[in-house]
Each structure stands twice: as structure tokens, then as C-alpha cells.
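Take a specimen:
=====
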Amino acid sequence: MALSRGDDYPIHQTPDPVAYAGTDRNFYDRYFFNGYAPDGSSFFAAAFGVYPHLDVADAHFCVVRDGVQHCLHASRRLGMERMGLECGPVRIEIVEPLQSLRLMVEGEGIAADITFAGRAFPIEEPRFTWRIGPRTVMDYTRLTQNGHYTGWIEVDGSREVLASGTMGTRDRSWGVRPIGAADPQFAGRAVPQFFWQWTPINLPGRSLFFHLNAHADGTAWNTRAVIAPDGGGVASFIEHHAPQMAATLVAGSRWPGSSVLTVGAEQFRLTPLARFQMRGLGYTSPKWGHGLDHGELEVEREDIDLASIDPARPDNLHVQMLCRVEGTDGETGMGVFEQLAIGDYVPLGLTGLADPAQPDKGGHPGSG
């Protein structure tokens, strides 16, 4: 029997029940959230993924306090029920589709009740399709939306109400990505290469979104910038198809430092204030990687001392830097600069799997 709650909604894309998501074992469906105080003094993030062919769901919630990233991980068997938006101690409620969502957490000394409200209609990013030789490695769509948060977060009995003006980003993506156990017969290169930058930015009356996927020589295979005015719909969005990020790196790492984003005639300087390790949400995590099978239900807490981690360790490469953003006309805002640089990337002088940039090889390390 493959019927599930989804089959009572008019959302079918094929003659199959909703429980069946095509034929690619790497199909996934994911929610992502991040949020931060207007002065950059706090940061939290969450992720929730469903992997229909692996019959697994997993969820993660993190909050940074006093230099420690407190992480809650959970994984469970999906049971072919894709409409159940809960995984152990983490639950998502869709209050108003494409506008408001609620995130609830309770477990291992970490609790939260947070509601997101969008500033404008979500943007739809260009479809991400990436092939290596005959293999389709990625083929997915993502919607992204900036917004404001209300609610509270508690760690080990210390509850903090979100500051007035707390803002951030949420996204939804679905399609094909590498998930679960590694493919034992992948026809890739000996040293993998992947370069990604993403900068959702909250400005006073508008949102700015930029992303870049690039080959090792710096050639973009997917990039765009969008400006979305508050309260606007798709017709109000302004797209730019040749944005440029003049990036630097934090010395001794592959993490982004102070950088300048050019979008049309405007420039925006991004100055990092704090760092968030994406492995806390399962990205590149050896144990809590997305879609790995942990049985019926497993929950674990992890506390990461951000000052003491090794920046060259592969699972520490993927970060979001919370940034202050300044436009050329004096406009100021906040956002994140997410980057994942695996393998060679000529524009930043990166070689090898995880080696930091060398100034004499074309990199531009900065103090960050």
C-alpha cells in the first residue's frame, strides 16, 4: 500500500501515488531556515529533509551563543509518508503557503518556537542541472524568500526572545542531489570540484539575492542576482544575469572574507561579523549527512566550539558568514555569505581538496 496523506491533495505530477518520487534514488525535498538579530548578535538555522527513495527524513536545528554552535540532529524512517513534517524533536507547520511557516523544537536541552513571515513573494532560482560525464549529479529547483521572525529559543534552560527586527531567509528545494551513502561506482574525478556562493541579503525596503555555481576555471554554470521589493510579486522583481562577486578569503581557510558584490550599477560591500558551520545542519557531515540511515529514530546533540575547529577539515569548508552589508549609496543591511569551495578554483588560487589559498597562486586572502 503506497497511499499517504498527500494523495488527498491535488498535487500529483504522475499517475503514481505521491509516495513515489520518480525513479532517481537521489530525489530529495528540503526546507531551510536561517535568522539573525539586526545587530548580528545572534544566529540560528534549521533544515528538514525528506528522501522518498531512501525512506528517510532528517532534521537539524542550530543556535549560536557565546561562540558555541549548539546543534540538534534527528533522523527517522519516513514510512513512505511525505506529508509528515516532523522528525523527532523538530516540527514544521505551514501557516500560509509561500508566506508564513512555523518551526518548533524540543529536545536534548534545546527548544524553540519561531514563526517566519515573508517580505515578498519567493523568488524561483534558475534550475540547477550539473552533469559530470554521463552522470547527472544535480537537477533541482529552489525557491528563496527573505523575511522576519518572531518567537523564542531556549538552550539548557536559558530562554531568549528573538529581538525585534530579527530577520533572515528560508528556502525550499527539491529534485536530485547526492544524498545518503556515497555512490561506490561514481565516474568522477580523483579530487572532486565544486564551487558555490549564495548571498541572501536583507536591505531596509528590499531583498537582494545572488548565487554562483562555477567550474574550476571560474566559468559560471549557474548564476543570477535578483532584487525583490518588499510586498512585491514576481512582476516587481529585477533580474541581473551577470553579477560579479569580488571575493576574498579569511587567511588560512576557504571561508569568505570581506567582499564586494556588483549587481548592475550598484555595489555592495559584505563584511563578515560571525561564522556558522553548515555541518551543524548535516551539510558535508560525516555522521549526519543528508539521507543517511539511522534507523527508526535517532536524536543527538552536538556543541561546536567555533574558535577551535580546523578550517582545512573537509566537513568544515561549508560555511555561512553573517555579514554587514553596505551599498554605494549608503544603504545598509544584513545578510549571509554562504560558500562551499571543494577542490581547485583558479580565481581564488585554490588547489587540492581543501588546501587554503596561496597568495602567489592568484588567491586574494583577506583578514575576514
Notes: The CA atoms of residues 123 and 234 lie 7 Å apart.
